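Researcher: Final request for today, and then I'll write up notes for the group meeting. The sequence and the SMILES for D-gluconic acid follow.
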Amino acid sequence: MNRVHVVIMGVAGCGKSAVGALLAARLGVPLIEGDDFHPAANIEKMRQALPLDDNDRAGWLARLAEELCAHPGGAVLTCSALKVAYRVRLREAVPDLKFVHLALSQHQAMERVASRTDHFYPPSLVASQFEALQDPAGEPGVLVVDATAHVARLVDQAVDWLGRAAER
Ligand SMILES: Nc1ncnc2c1ncn2[C@@H]1O[C@H](COP(=O)(O)OP(=O)(O)OP(=O)(O)O)[C@@H](O)[C@H]1O
Ligand SMILES: O=C(O)[C@H](O)[C@@H](O)[C@H](O)[C@H](O)CO
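Model: Predicted protein-D-gluconic acid complex:
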């Protein structure tokens, strides 16, 4: 599958990194890890248990849009992309951009984030992710999957869906 650009999106702990890495390998395209492009001030803010706001995310999204454009052969991007406006911003860079939403409950996200010991993101911020989340279901180029399925199964679902979309 050539030139596929797909964002693995969702709240903290939904599995973006785990699914994104395997999907990129399956598709043979680079992985752009969205968290690596947050300015240091954003990471510090989250570390201090303060939620990011639209201003904090604006420069980051612009940076991610640039990064997508820098990979014309296709890429998998992990990015929370919680709000409609954020997804619109990324679609400006790649008009046919696809999004796979790893959907899970707040309780499940909390359990996963709380059980991680090697990550900067504090469990106390999980509720704010759900407050910010605007469900992408129904937007063009969006697949919603159950993030509690096995990672391999989620990757299979994404690959099948992307393959069908490429045939159209
Ligand atoms: N499908 C899955 N089933 C069970 N556990 C999973 C699944 N996907 C991810 N996990 C586990 O859940 C935790 C969160 O996953 P991961 O770090 O990939 O999420 P994330 O969305 O990238 O989170 P963040 O955005 O906060 O970095 C990890 O401990 C990971 O091993
Ligand atoms: O938009 C945001 O609030 C952030 O991107 C967060 O979602 C975190 O960075 C991420 O989930 C932790 O890895």
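Model: Residues 116 and 133 are 22 Å apart (CA to CA). The mean pLDDT is 96.
Researcher: Thanks, that's everything.
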